[in-house]
Amino acid sequence: MSCIIDPLGNVLVEPDFTGETIQLTELDRVIARGKYDLDVVGHYARPDIFSLAVDAKPKPAVAFTLPPGLSIVADADAESKAQRGIACSD
After folding, report:
1. Is the pTM of this model over 0.90?
2. Distance CA 50, CA 84 (A)
3. C-alpha to C-alpha distance for 90 and 86, rounded to whole angstroms
4. Which of 31, 42, 75, 83 has the CA that lies 20 to 30 A from 66?
5. Cα–Cα distance, 27 to 79 (Å, whole number)
């Protein structure tokens, strides 16, 4: 499913839910004025408020995170003690 929406948010071609289709439309050159809605270098540019930071270091495709207060080290230590039959008391 896909549709075509212009830079101003107007739906030019409605979604087709019946199956695979190729959707085409003719674009009006007036649509190009949509770029003026966000002028990133004009008087709306606020480097004191907005910034863009790109971290280019490679990262894994999947990353697991633990809820606050949990630690892999603490969990591994408790599991190790349990396997050795050592009782844990907090």
Report:
1. no
2. 54
3. 13
4. 83
5. 63
